[in-house]
């Protein structure tokens, strides 16, 4: 019961849990029995609290009570003091824990400093001068950006007939271009480059004050961006064309070598020498290799590297097939540079009379007018405007029967049971004889699969929009690599592999079933007939991928320079070239006469 501000009496119910501990509830019947006792207890409590508070006020010279505290009841003051004490205890505990954490951090830092290797391994100061970094290109980027801005302002100045600003911008742009030259980093810039950058900055500042207009500048930059994109696309097509041209062009030293060898073959009477013992050529207890190439130098590296790592060189027989233009040169090279112990037989593909258009589908197709038009006429997709997709197929190797002879191995070597096929752009780094002991499990071809990445599956090479392909092959089937393949020729004949190849070549007369080259028809011909070899036998990509794993390259039995960047070309990836060049006989007189050097 209480009175409100107007003086009216009010009643309000109060729950027991809302009352403080000082309240004592009594039954109405006992209301008067111990009232004096309760009053005495409250009185004593009040007096004791009052005495304590008075003592504290007297003892604390600096303690000042808030006016509200003076009006509080002693019980409330007591509760407030107890809360304050609990708060102080909690604060002290937190401070103690914080100190312990700091001590632990300091101890950990000391321990780390004891184990820290303080040896100076290079420049690490954050205050080093920028030009100490030889790869820095900040100034170069600045100057290129300035030239772009200068061109934009120059166009605006020309439209506004501001000839003085236009001339100043163009002149300074020319000077900046000259200072940059062919530089790819600040270290390669001319000494005057920084002064030119400062001068350009001054001119651009004046041009901005006179000519800057945001909408106009945005329009100019959009036009410049479109023009630059068109130029980049044109340069990309040009680059693709030139790379393909460089890849199929024979360098002058490599053209010189077969000419020198062919001349000496006849001048020095080597043409009168008899052939080697033919018994080894058909001995199935030996290790036989097939190499089809018109490149004398590349073939010599394959043979040299293979023999060098062979445990028993005298048991290795190399069957080399080349064209009639290089037959004499190839034969001459291995007559005078034959590796110790190994047997080498060089043959001319034009002497294979059975390889004619009536038997070979590819030769028959090449004789057709449509194929001649496709490959040799300028109005077909060999022009630069069409792009780079078909440019590589103008490479002569795609028309050479040396590239398709791999599908006729039993016809070329009818008395052999197994043969290891090697491309001429590989290097052998280990003994390959264990390959003849691999159980192919009834398969014809032993090869390293390349489907670690999705783009090396069948749908990358075959046209699955054609029902002839989609009905017979799995688009996700794993591709494999040509370049190092062990072939079971007995199983080849049993399964009529060459017949399968001919059938699919006839179906592909319109060239729509697969991409040109020898791998796609190989994937089709040996579909479900290829046994996967361990990846360590054959590592690919040295002719196009500069980011290969170095350990994988060094541990591989065979490394393959597939791609345009062949090791005998200036295009070669420099860090991979040493793996190939160490097997080249640079001290050979023929190589020296033709200026073939490291």
TrEMBL record:
One of its GO terms (molecular function) is polygalacturonate 4-alpha-galacturonosyltransferase activity. The keyword Transferase applies. Keywords: Cell wall biogenesis/degradation, Glycosyltransferase, Golgi apparatus, Transferase. The keyword Cell wall biogenesis/degradation applies. InterPro entries: GAUT, Glyco_trans_8, Nucleotide-diphossugar_trans. It is a single-pass type II membrane protein. It is found in: Golgi apparatus membrane. GO terms for biological process: cell wall organization; pectin biosynthetic process. Pathway: Glycan metabolism; pectin biosynthesis. One of its GO terms (cellular component) is Golgi membrane. Its EC number is 2.4.1.-. It is an enzyme of class 2 (transferase). Pfam families: GAUT_1, Glyco_transf_8. Belongs to the glycosyltransferase 8 family. PANTHER family: GALACTURONOSYLTRANSFERASE 3-RELATED (PTHR32116:SF76), GALACTURONOSYLTRANSFERASE 4-RELATED (PTHR32116). This is Hexosyltransferase. It comes from Cannabis sativa (Hemp). The lineage of its organism: Eukaryota, Viridiplantae, Streptophyta, Embryophyta, Tracheophyta.
